[in-house]
Amino acid sequence: MSTAYVAVYDTLADWEIGHLVVELRTGRFTGVPWDVVTVGETLESVVTMGGMRVVPDVTIADVAPDAGDLLVLAGSGQWDVGGSEAFAKLAGQFLDAGVPVAAICGATAGLARAGLLDERKHTSAAKEYLQATGYQGSDLYVDARAVVDRDLITAGPDSPVQFARAVMERLELADERKREAYEGVFHRADPAAYATLVG
C-alpha cells in the first residue's frame, strides 16, 4: 500500500487538505486506498485552525523519502512567521529523491523561503504573497487554481478540490474523465458529473 505523509502542526488549515486526504485514505473514487500517516515535529498533539486536536503518528525524524510516496503540506499561521522550517527541509529531501510533494497556501511560502520554488512552476494565494518571501522564482508563478511541475503540486487556499484533483493527476489515480467528474461534483455541484464519478 502506498503511503502519504501528512505534516501536522498548530493552526493547520483543515479545509485545505480535507478533500485530498479523504480520497487518498478511502480510495472511494480511485479504487486505490493509501496509508495516511500524520507527521509532527514531535509526538505532542497539535490543534488545527478548526480546533481539532491531532496526535502525530510519527515524527520528522522517523520519515525518509524512500519510505513514502507523497508528502502533504497544508497552510498554517506557522508558515507566515517563518516556522515549520523542518518541514520545508523534509520537502526538499522528498523532491531531491523524486518523491512528490503537495503544498497548499502558506506551505508554498515556506517552500519559497527554502528555495524550492525557484526552478519549478507553481502557484499560491497570490504572486505578491510569495514575492514577499524574497524568493527567486516569481517568473515561474502561474495564475491557476493548482499547478503540477514534475514532483511538485501547489495550490492556493481557495482551491482544495483542484489541489486534490492535481495530486490525483500526478499520482495517476483515476483517469482524466473521473478526475474531471470529481471537480464537477465537489467544486461545481454538477449533478450530471456524479454518475461518471461513481461509475
TrEMBL record:
Q: Which UniProt keywords apply?
A: Glutamine amidotransferase, Transferase
- Record-annotated DJ-1/PfpI domain positions: 4-169
Q: Name one Pfam family in it.
A: DJ-1_PfpI
Q: Which GO terms describe its molecular function?
A: transferase activity
Gene3D superfamilies from the xrefs?
A: 3.40.50.880
One GO CC term, this protein: cytoplasm
Segments spanning the bilayer are none
> Domain of life of the organism in this record?
Bacteria
Show the InterPro entries listed in the entry: Class_I_gatase-like, DJ-1/PfpI, Prot/Nucl_acid_deglycase
What name appears for this protein in its UniProt entry? Glutamine amidotransferase
Organism, as annotated: Kribbella soli
